[in-house]
Amino acid sequence: MEGMLKASFAFIDASIAAGTNGDRLSKLTHDQLQSLKANIGRMSNDLNDATCAIALITDTCPFDAEQRAELVAAMQTTVSVGARVCSADSKNQEHLHTYNYYTESIWHAILNTPDDEELFKTLIDFFHKIGLRYPSEPTKKVVIATILAA
User: I need a labelling partner for 94 at 20 to 30 A (CA). Which of 25, 29, 65, 105 fits?
Assistant: First the structure.
């Protein structure tokens, strides 16, 4: 989320430096805000991710106070949604093709790591990096089946 915010801020700052102003700047800023809010709304972030992102939204970012408040509210919502994702009565993340995202190093670990605990730590770190934090039962089965088939 931080990278997305920094990129958006840099885009607006570069546009200002290039001479964008007036109505065109207002539209650009509005469009960037709407895009950020839409993207943030599709994310589920842990408390740390959201806190780091909110810390970026200061008086020096290219949005006014009202727009900053909208961004912060959008982020706070994703933390709430993220907290519900792991509750017993909600749907977990389902991704039945995780093997399509395995890097060469992940395949190497699957094929060459004799210690199951070490292998699962490697896989869990990888899944967290790609945003899979609360896998559904079918997703877990695909992961195990892939390991056994390899």
Answer: 105
From the list 134, 114, 130, the residue with the least C-alpha distance to 147 is 114
Closest CA to 150 of 117, 115, 106: 106
**Coil, helix or strand for 135?**
strand
Q: Tell me the Cα Rg of the chain.
A: 20
Structural domain including 122 reads 98-149
Rounded mean pLDDT for each run of 10 residues along the chain, 150 residues in total: 87 94 95 90 76 83 91 81 42 82 92 92 89 86 91
| Same domain for 106 and 81 | no
Looking at residue 19, its pLDDT comes to 96
| Dist. CA 112–CA 115, nearest whole Å | 9
Are 77 and 105 in the same domain? no
Boundary-marking domain end, from 42, 57, 85: 85
Give the other-Cβ count within 10 Å of 88's Cβ.
4
> Alpha carbon 37 to chain centroid distance?
13
Token code pair at residue 6: 């920094």
Neighbours of 111 (CB within 10 A): 10
> Rounded CA gap, 101 and 67, in Å?
36
